[in-house]
Design a protein that fits this description.
The protein contains no helices and 48 strands. The strands form 11 sheets. Strands 39, 40, 43, 46, 47 and 48 form a 6-stranded antiparallel sheet that branches. The chain has a 5-stranded antiparallel sheet with strand order 4-3-6-9-8, with no helix packed on it. Strands 12-14-19-16-17 form a 5-stranded antiparallel sheet, with no helix packed on it. The chain starts with a strand and ends in a 14-residue tail after the last strand.
């Protein structure tokens, strides 16, 4: 072995270890596991009810009436970190505080609750491990970290039943959104649960004449173990009924205050009496007695009281259909439900816009029950008891600023019903609203912080865009992308679909723009834009792009490894990026083809990373973090080609080269090399090279990390370029270490 490294701009050799055999793997270092300037990492708290498999409630209510002395009940909760593994921070439990009081909030002398955490120790003193999400990088995982940790809240009855409140407050670190605010779970005890059941419902007075009186009753039973409270009692509807319940009486004219309550003791019943003294019509009439309860399964009860329910009855879902503002020329449609509410089937014998209504209104029968045919007295449509039939009410604004009013008449065997109609034409054409979201193709997770690393596969989604006018659907999408210089990435399958895919390979700033167009060919009020920063997360990141004036279509791609298209022609030129270790020029057999007085580093076995040796093992043997990797090789026209080193040794010097490998008859190309150090484009390192022809090799410069320096290659001209024509590409066997 030999211990050597070159410092930038000098011949000093210190601190680099070379071993025969350079292909190995390593582990992440601690430096790569924390936050960086390119990706804000955070944890995400998730508490789950272990028994229910659902998110934990903020407050649990426990009925302890059935818990015998010395018996207990408990709740197990799991703490998880649900942040995406690639951007997660470990979740730390900093402190756990428990508080137990009476139901009124007074301190207790003998606690009946407990909280046990890891090791079955009291939550407040337990040793809590850090929590990481599933798939978290094992090399970054803190010692003892777990994917979930459980704790248990337990109630044990000590003596006579008493009402208690118990709160567990957990302070976390790592979740940016939660911050230092405690995350709380509370358990409140209660003695028994009320349970109400009322019958019959509906209560039917039967056939009641104009001069007749009638009465009927409903019985409500509290089948639970606690008092049932009936509150917010009100009477609704057209039936003139008087209701008596538990010493309280109400009718349509004398509604009760909202604070009035009626109580049914546990396992007791209440008889509710309804009385009719006179009716103004013999048609079907009904009223609803509505009240709230403290039965957790039935927070509201509606008891229906009805008279003259025999015979057909018709009920419409709307008495007014208001279309609001409608785009001129676009038809707005609303559905009207016609329900058979009586004891007999209902017949619909017709429906039309009433004479005298203004222009724009129409009736449509393209529904299941009408099958496109308008009903008549000779051919009615029957609606069975309890079912509904729908028809369409249509409005087309005749002109801008139109104000339309009309009536719809529905003819049935239970009489005619009238619906008021209203609609307005917009005073100007409304434009749709463009909206977009960016998601990761791999897992549909949203892009957070408007930053991704190069080669992230994205989906652009216009699903949140909304029409400008009711009923005026968005039918066209137009995407465009402003890209860094020399980047020609395209949207697939096209820029005119609702959700195209996009892969930004070049680092830099991108602006995604979306325009939407509706069926009336109206464009979005304003395009939606999204500024996306594509930032490397490597300490050293080198990117090559190139421009070939003779290549008229830089966005076409080859379908094989050589860049050929389906017709056998080539998609573009092929330039290759090289990154050479400082030890390359010292290897046996290296020649000085560029005539600068020192041996060239290119094509040195082990020490030149390129398409010929994409992942050599440099510096510390077995540590992949200091190895270069050819992350992208492009053969169809413009790049980018990318070589990166996660964590290069401090002060190590690397030479950057570009070989014009194949022109495929497209002619000259002009390369551009960009060097990013710690995710930032370094000054003087966005370098445009000289015009190159097939066979040329350009030494673009030399770079080091800590200190971060970039300088011209030895022997470069006044523009900092060292260009060698017809460079001999001599590859004996493999460039990989043997």
């Amino acid at each position: 072995m030999k211990l050597r490294t070159k410092a930038l701009g000098s011949g000093l050799l210190v601190g680099s270890l070379w071993l025969a055999g350079c292909s190995s793997s390593g582990t992440s270092s601690a430096a790569s596991c924390g936050n960086s300037g390119n990706l804000d990492k955070t944890a995400q708290i998730s508490l789950q009810d272990s028994s229910a498999g659902t998110a934990a409630k903020a407050v649990y209510e426990w009925d302890i009436s059935t818990v015998s002395s010395s018996s207990s009940k408990q709740l197990s909760l799991s703490i998880r970190n649900t942040a995406p593994a690639v951007s997660a921070q470990p979740l730390t439990i900093k402190s756990v505080t428990v508080t137990e009081t009476t139901a009124a909030g007074a301190p207790v002398s003998s606690p009946e609750f407990s909280c046990n955490g890891p090791g079955d120790k009291d939550c407040a003193v337990a040793s809590w491990p850090q929590v990481v999400p599933a798939g978290y990088d094992a090399a970054c995982k803190p010692a003892g970290a777990v994917e979930s940790v459980q704790f248990t809240i337990k109630y044990t009855r000590a003596g006579a039943l008493s009402l208690r409140k118990y709160k567990v407050a957990i302070v976390f670190a790592g979740d940016v959104q939660q911050g230092s605010k405690p995350y709380t779970v509370e358990v409140a005890t209660r003695l028994g649960t009320p349970s109400i059941a009322c019958s019959p419902n509906p209560a039917d007075f039967g056939k009641v004449g104009l001069a007749e009186a009638a009465s009927t009753t409903v019985v409500c039973i509290n089948q639970g173990k606690a008092d049932l409270q009936m509150s917010d009692i009100k009477l609704l509807g057209s039936l003139p009924v008087s209701i008596s319940m538990g010493g309280v009486t109400l009718d349509a004219a004398t509604q009760l205050p909202a604070t009035t309550t009626v109580t049914i003791a546990a396992e007791e019943s209440l008889t509710i009496t309804g009385v009719i003294t006179s009716l103004t019509s013999e048609q079907k009439m009904a009223a609803i007695l509505r009240f709230a309860t403290n039965d957790p399964s039935k927070p509201q009860i509606d008891l229906t009281w009805q008279a003259n329910a025999s015979g057909p009855c018709v009920s419409l879902s709307k008495t007014t259909v208001d279309f609001g503002l409608t785009q001129v020329g676009a038809s707005a449609v609303q559905e009207l439900q016609i329900k058979s509410c009586g004891a007999d089937d209902l017949s619909i014998t017709g429906a039309e816009i009433t004479q005298g209504s203004e222009q724009g209104f129409a009736v449509g029968f393209a529904t299941t029950c009408f099958s496109g045919v308008a009903p008549t007295a000779a051919a009615p449509v029957a609606v069975p008891q309890g079912l509904s039939c729908s028809l369409q009410v249509i409005y087309t604004a005749p002109q801008l600023g139109a104000i339309s009013a009309g009536k719809l008449t529905v003819h049935t065997s239970a009489g005619d019903r009238m619906v008021l109609l209203a609609g307005k034409g917009e005073t100007q054409v409304s434009c749709p609203k463009a909206c977009m979201a960016l998601k990761n193709l791999a897992d549909s997770s949203p892009v957070i912080g408007q930053a991704v690393i190069p080669q992230t596969q994205l989906v652009l989604d216009a699903g949140c865009s909304t029409p400008g006018s009711t009923g005026q659907a968005i039918v066209k999408y137009k995407w465009s992308i402003s890209q860094p210089p020399d980047s020609y990435a395209v949207l697939t399958p096209s820029d005119a679909v609702k959700s195209p895919q996009f892969q930004p390979n070049s680092a830099g700033a991108y602006t995604v723009t979306l325009d939407v167009i509706d069926a009336a060919d109206v464009h979005a009020c304003a395009p939606a834009t999204y500024k996306l920063n594509v930032t490397p997360d490597d300490k050293l990141h080198i990117e090559l792009t190139w421009d070939t004036p003779g290549d008229a279509d830089k966005t076409d791609v080859g379908i094989d490894a050589k860049g050929k298209k389906a017709d056998g022609s080539y998609a573009g030129t092929d330039l290759d990026l090289h990154l050479a270790n400082a030890l390359a020029e010292d290897q046996a057999g290296q020649k000085d083809y560029d005539k600068n007085g020192v041996a060239d580093p290119w094509f040195a076995v082990c020490y030149d990373c390129s398409v010929f040796n994409g992942y050599p093992d440099w510096d510390e043997f077995g540590n992949y973090l200091d190895n270069p990797k050819l992350d992208r090789d492009d053969k169809d026209g413009w790049g980018p080609e990318i070589i990166y080193i996660k964590e290069p040794p401090a002060g190590a010097v690397y030479s950057i080269g570009v070989l014009y490998n194949a022109a495929h008859s497209f002619g000259k190309s002009i390369p551009t090399v960009r060097v990013f150090v710690d995710g930032e484009l370094q000054a003087m390192t966005s370098k445009v090279g000289p015009e190159m022809v097939e066979g040329d090799l350009w030494c673009a410069g030399q770079v080091s990390w800590q200190p971060n320096k970039f300088q011209a290659c030895p022997g470069a001209d006044g523009q900092g370029n060292l260009l060698t024509h017809k460079y001999p590409v001599v590859i004996q066997g493999s460039l990989q270490c043997q």
